[in-house]
Amino acid sequence: MKSYIKAYLKSREQIKLTKYIKNILSSEQLTLLDIGAAGDMENRWKRISPLVNYIGFEPDERSYNDLLKNLVNVQVILFIKKLFGLRKDR
User: I want to staple 31 with a disulfide (CB 3.0 to 4.6 A). Which of 25, 39, 53, 89 is the partner?
Assistant: First the structure.
């Protein structure tokens, strides 16, 4: 029962936080730029993920493919594998 109450209170807190941030943003967008996006979105951002336009840069091929499989709940999502690179002959 105790865990149920904790989960309920956490969800209520989440709803309040989301409404509060929506009011602050009004019609503006919140964009999160994640350099080295391997793994997952940080927990502090997950709490407001439905309000976020997420852009992640991840050059590692395996991590990049994992990101594509595990999309988070955000407004707009874009993963970029390479922004720029050095030529191999240099």
Answer: 53
Q: N- to C-terminal Cα distance for the chain?
A: 63
Strand order in the sheet with 52-57: 30-35, 52-57, 76-80
Q: Which amino acid is at 71?
A: L
Q: What are phi and psi of 18, to 5 degrees?
A: -60, -45
β-bridge partners, 14: none
CB neighbours (10 Å) of residue 45?
17
Site of tokens 């992640």: 56
DSSP letter for each residue of 53-87: EEEEE---HHHHHHHHHS--S-SEEEEES-S----
Helix (H, G, I), strand (E, B) or coil at 5: helix
Global pTM exceeds 0.90: no
